[in-house]
Amino acid sequence: MSAVLAIARREVRERRFLLAAAATLSLLAWILQGFVTPAWTRGLGESLALVLFMAFPTAVALAVGSSLIGRDLALGRLSFYFSRPLSSAALWAGKFLGGAALVLGTFFCCVIPFVLSTGGIAREAAAGWSVLLLGLMAFAHVTTAMYRSGSWLFALDLGLGALFVTVFGAQLRHLVSAGAGRLLFEFGQFQPFGGVLGAAAILATAGMLAAAAAQLAHGRADAHRGHVALSTVVWTLALAGFGGLALWSTWVLRVTPADVGGVGHPPFAAPRGRALFFKGSGRGRAGFSPIFLMNGQSGSYVRLPPERVTPPAFAVDGSMAVWVAPAATWWEAFNPNPVAAFGIGVELLAVPDSARADPWYPELTLMVARLDRGGPVIEERPIELLDAVSIALAVDAHGEQALLSGRSSVFLVDAASGKLLAGLALSDVAAADFLADGSVRLYRLETRPRATFVVLDWNAKDGSQIERARVPGEGRMMLLARRGDLAVVSTGVREKAIVDAASGAVRSFDSGFSGAALVLSTGQVALSLDDEVRVVARGGETVASLPVGSGTRVYALCEPAPGELAVGLWTRSLAGRRTIFLDATTGVVRREEEDLLPAGSGHAGTGPSPEAGSLASRLFTDSDGRLIALEPDGRRREIVTSAE
Amino acid sequence: MIRIDPRDALPIWAQIEEGVRRLVGAGGLRPGRPLPSVRDLARELRVNPMTVSKAYQRLADAGVVVVRRGEGTFVADGPPQWSRAEKARTLREAASRYVALAVTMGASKDEAAREVAGAWDGAMRSRGGER
Amino acid sequence: MTGEAAAFSVEGLTVRYGVRTVLDGISFEVPRGSVFALLGRNGAGKSSLVRCALGLQKPAHGAVRLFGENAWVSRCWAMARVGVVPEEPDAPSDMTAGELLAFCAPLYAKWDDAAARARLERSDVPLRTPFGRLSKGQKGAVMLALALAPAPEILVLDDPTLGLDIVARRALYDELIGDLADRGTTALVTTHDLDGIEPIADRVAILNGARLVVNAQLDELKGRFRRIRCGKAPGPFSWEPFDVATAVEKDWGREAIVTNFTDARLDAFVARTGSSDVEVGALSLEEIFLGVVNAPGGQS
Predict the structure, then answer these.
(1) For residues B3 and B12, what is the distance between their CA atoms, to the nearest angstrom?
(2) Is domain C8-218 annotated with CATH 3.40.50.12780?
């Protein structure tokens, strides 16, 4: 042990000027920041601190790593150690211990002024940087040892290195394009410098250190034989590591709905039929959850990359779903602010939000999923548009045309080819429906000059627009529910309005804060008000009422069977999760289900209400987040299965 | 005082042995006086100490020197105790060498004998006439 | 001493660099307490042999055993008992002599620091100057002091006098002889300074053509290698019964270096040639070495 320490001490003493330089610069930066009055020196001090933090330890790690063994080997001085009763393991340990002390000591000196200027550094970031610096040191050793041996093996190493980087990058890219890009930086809940890259850095460092040990044990003072040992260990471990990564990636990406444990967000369910989109709550493989497009009856499903699915629009008969897939750019795919992962709150490389709407941005794809046949069949069509498109709003009954909304326009697109058929310069369109005569009903939530809810029908063939209703409001208006000609919209903080697009009639209610509303298949509207859930007929008269105690909130409403209203209630304590089923025409409570709440819809109010009795209308969640379908016979059926 | 020539056909230990004998004979090393230690002589001559050891051992066996444990090697007090046969043989061997040398130089028997007598007288003189 | 095994034995050692065979099945033993001189021309394989002996290189075949243990496998164990003075001083150049002593001392079971310092002082080596700034002779003195301080049972000196001036060379031999006298150390020395090693060596081995062509006691070697001169005699001539390493004809006669000299053979030769002016001369180790390596087909 003392031999190890003696060697380590020697390595540090030989390069003590590095530590002195780090301490001096660090002190200088600190002085400039704190004690000198002109403002520009403060900025200079902060810049110096940043440079110190990032560049100096990196340079030291590379310099120390390349000279630890490489220099002694090149100068023929390793035989000094091998001529003494020193095991090659002790030599290895002493050298790298000394190197680590130098590198981490320099890092510590350099981090101090940085901490002083920015107020702190996350523990994980400091640990991560340390691992990275030690990895750089090991890497510098390996590469200089390979180069300096002067052996032809170096060419082989370069070739294998290029190959390895390629396949490793390809595997990472595979993960990213499958939507698991976040795994590169995080495993589930772990902070930055976990993730695949963090694990790879740690394993690579350990592997390179092990290879250095083999180099000394087998090669001793001979550079060429040491190189053989070094390369053998490095590439064997790299192969094993890559194999492990590939297996692990495959395992992660094969996540099933059962693995994720439950829905994380309200699902998007087709208004008729059995298809639904949902995303898991992240309990799955290392926190990765794709979006599952699933047949709610059979349990068969397809995995979709989460970043490439925007809210889908369903055809009315549930036979087709359409959505817009933005191209997964590298930055968007895993972290909007990757530099933050490194412990520096500097927005150097983040993609500003405005750029996402830039028409110059990468191309978009229209995804068309046919849901009526056995399993969903998904096709892609590239779209060429002049505006950055956000989401698909509606698909016509025949599945031939889709309406897409952009930042400042709406577009009518041919679903078969993706070609633009017509466009209308209209912003703030929240929802749309295709009407029987081929025109499109647009629901607009204007914000300028005042908040206004507008319903207008657009005939794309002749470009005519007919305004059906106009409802002024305050603040941020929201579309809460709609079916057919009826729409429910919140017009102010405490007010709701029922809008009939056929007649243009508007009926307002002072409704309290709750936003739950539903247009029933009977044409009646269920609204949650301050202390009750009221069913209102077309004329405005109250048909039924369910009192809601204070302290109890209405979560959501749905119509699991024609004429049956389900009201989901919850209290602060969460123990009060339950759904009450009542006859919508009489208000008679039929039954109560403990622990269940209606699953709600990812569309919130902007999607059309599902057909009463369809699977979409019968979806509930329990307190564990499981998705439950209530069968007509009252049986509970868990949707999330692992059937392929 | 003792010189060795590595190129000589005679082994080094024999040269050392002869050197000591010559010194003792010529009175350079008196009876009872110490010889240089094996270590010191080896270092001085730059030869292997084993070689010096061997020479000293042979001298001790011949009675020229005496080894005292812990003290070193000393010149013997009295004349060495030779058996008559040994004495005769040793003298004869040395004489043959001398004769061979003289013959090859073309000297006559008288010349050779004269030189022997002269060397004897000289050695006796330098010993202070002790014999 | 460590058990009964020979201090140093080479068994069938074969070393190859690519297609070139540098050592081909070399075998010999270094008896305890002896000084073994390993000679050979540049590139004859001496350094390779020493590297194998110190566990720095793994031979293609065979092994070097130190105290019965394979030097490659048990290098660390063996080095506790071996003192090494390498051809090129390899101590780190930023460490001073004092620091080197302090570094090496804890590695060994026994370490005579006072003796080492005394040696350094005898050689005028300043203790606080970085190793890299010492003269060649001082560096050699430091390496020898480091090698001798743990009182090793075997000393391996790889061309220790290379590049040293006469004073430094004598100082080195001085220290070596002193150590030999004090402790009866076994020493393996490879050198080109044949004059210097000649009076010190017990056994001599000569490497030539990847083989060990000579392995003998020095005294015995000097006994059987002689230079013979004889005048020109009429008639056919041969050197029988002598084995001849080299032979030349000069205008005054013939001269040869023979490798199996005995008095009996000399008498037979004289009788056969009937020549009266036959001169026999002794050879220095240098001349023996030249004779061996220049001989056609080598010698054994």
Answers:
(1) 10
(2) no
Average pLDDT, chain C: 89
Q: What residue segments make up the domains of chain B, in order of their start?
A: 12-75, 84-126
pTM above 0.90, yes or no: no
Which of C88, C90, C107 comes nearest A86 by C-beta? Answer: C107
Peptide bond into C241 cis (omega under 30): yes
If you classify domain B12-75 with CATH, what class do you get? mainly alpha
Identify whether A449 is preceded by a cis peptide bond (ω within 30 of 0): yes
Q: Do B47 and C177 touch (CB under 8 A)?
A: yes
Q: Give the whole-angstrom CA distance, residue A193 versus residue A215.
A: 29
Task: ipTM value, please give it.
Answer: 0.90
Least confident of A44-58, A397-411, C155-169, C189-203: A44-58
Calculate ∠ Cα A520-A525-A528, nearest 5°: 115
Task: Kindly list the distances between the CA atom of residue A157 and the CA atoms of A20, A171, C58, C133, in Å, as whole numbers in the listed order.
Answer: 36, 21, 24, 38
- Which of A158-172, C13-27, C261-275 shows the lowest mean pLDDT across its residues? C261-275
Task: Using alpha carbons, list the distances in angstroms from residue B110 to A328, B102, B119.
Answer: 122, 11, 14
β C82-85/C154-158 pair status: parallel
Residue B50 contacts C, CB cutoff 8 Å: yes
Rounded-to-5 percentages of helix, strand, coil across chain C: 35, 30, 40
Mean pLDDT of chain A: 83
Does residue A549 fall inside a structural domain? no
How many Å apart are CA C270 and CA C231, to the nearest integer?
11
Partnered with residue C238 across adjacent β-strands are: none
The whole-angstrom separation of Cα A285 and Cα A183 is: 10
pLDDT in tens, A305-324: 877 788 889 988 888 898 88
Total count of domains within chain A: 1
Range(s) of chain C covered by CATH 3.40.50.300: 8-218
CB atoms within 10 A of CB A588: 10
Interchain CB contact of A2 with C (< 8 Å):
yes
DSSP secondary structure of A477-523 = -EEEEEETTEEEEE-SSSEEEEEETTT--EEEEE--S---EEE-TTS
CA–CA min distance C184, chain A (Å): 21
- What 3-state DSSP class applies to A438? coil
Using an 8 Å Cβ cutoff, are A186 and A118 in contact?
A: no
- The string of pLDDT tens digits covering residues A528-557 is 888 888 898 887 788 888 888 888 888 889
A111, two tokens: 């981090």
Q: Does C106 touch chain A (CB under 8 A)?
A: yes
Coil, helix or strand at residue B39: helix
Q: What DSSP character marks residue A511?
A: -
Range of the domain at A85: 2-253
* Alpha-carbon gap: C282 to the closest alpha carbon of chain B (Å): 5
Residue A185 CA: distances (Å) to CA of A50, A58, A329, A493, C186: 23, 21, 16, 41, 63
* pLDDT reported for residue A457: 93
In terms of DSSP bridges, do strands C154-158 and C186-190 run parallel, antiparallel, or are they unpaired?
A: parallel
% of chain A surpassing 90 pLDDT: 24
Fill in the DSSP letter of residue A351.
P
Q: Could you state, in chain order, the average pLDDT of each consecutive group of 10 residues for chain B (131 residues)?
A: 80 90 80 89 91 91 86 80 76 88 88 90 72 47
Residue B131 forms contact with C (CB below 8 Å) = no
A638 touches chain C (CB under 8 A): no
- Pull the structure tokens for residue B79: 């004349």
Q: Say how far apart CA A294 and CA A302 lie, in whole Å.
A: 6
Q: Which two tokens stand for residue A191?
A: 């902070």
Q: Do A85 and C92 touch (CB under 8 A)?
A: no
Token code pair at residue A346: 């500097």
CB of A496 within 8 A of CB of A506? Answer: no
Q: State pLDDT tens for residues A205-225.
A: 999 999 999 999 998 888 888
Band of residue A338 on the pLDDT scale cut at 50, 70, 90: very low
